[in-house]
């Protein structure tokens, strides 16, 4: 049992170190994937498009760096900026969303990449605290399992 807990502890420790070391690569991959999701955005039930809509609605952002990122997409030429960028759903018409100067007043202008990464970094201390607490419980479990094993081994020959 102690070896199993030690193995789990080491796997979690390695995952945390790898995540910390490669955090810049994770950001770069996220940005490129977000750019791809914008490029391939459509109104069908595509999970990437739904993820982009959810991020934009939840974080009140639009595009990767800013709302003008949509101008380079095929979706923009057909329908303009998506409705998920609108500050108020009632005040956003398709004509407004096709014109960037009008859309600037009606959509969120901040990009999603900065907001997502800053939100993740702000929650990182909570994740680290919870992980540290779980690691402490695992270490206590390892120590107690070793003590129990030692106690059973010592008392095995005295039971005659």
- The H/E string reads HHHHHHH
Number of domains: 1
Structural class: mainly alpha
Number of helices: 7
User: Strand share of the residues?
Assistant: under 5%
Question: Could you say which overall geometry the principal axes of the C-alpha atoms support?
Answer: rod-shaped
What's the CATH H-level homologous superfamily?
A: Tetraspanin
CATH first level: which class? Mainly Alpha
Low-confidence stretches: none
Termini separation comes to 27 Å
- Helicity level: over 70%
CATH topology: Cd81 Antigen, Extracellular Domain, Chain: A
Mean pLDDT: 85
User: From the 3D coordinates, which CATH architecture would you assign?
Assistant: Orthogonal Bundle
How many beta-strand segments?
A: 0
As a whole number of angstroms, the C-alpha radius of gyration is 25 Å
Largest β-sheet summary: none
Membrane topology: Multi-pass membrane protein
Main location: membrane
Keywords: Glycoprotein, Membrane, Signal, Transmembrane, Transmembrane helix
Subcellular location: Membrane
């Amino acid at each position: 049992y102690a070896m199993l807990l030690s193995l789990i502890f080491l796997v979690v420790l390695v995952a945390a170190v790898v995540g910390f070391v490669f955090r810049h690569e994770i950001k770069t991959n996220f940005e490129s994937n977000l750019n791809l999701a914008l490029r391939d955005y459509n109104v069908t039930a595509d999970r990437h498009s739904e993820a982009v809509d959810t991020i934009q609605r939840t974080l009140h952002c639009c595009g990767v760096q800013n709302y003008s990122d949509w101008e380079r997409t095929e979706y923009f030429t057909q329908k303009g900026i998506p409705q998920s960028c609108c500050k108020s759903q009632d005040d956003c018409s398709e004509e407004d969303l096709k014109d960037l100067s009008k859309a600037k007043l009606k959509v969120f202008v901040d990009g999603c990449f900065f907001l997502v990464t800053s939100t993740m970094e702000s929650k990182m201390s909570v994740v680290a605290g919870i992980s540290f607490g779980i690691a402490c419980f695992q270490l206590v479990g390892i120590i107690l399992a070793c003590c129990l094993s030692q106690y059973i081994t010592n008392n095995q020959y005295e039971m005659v």
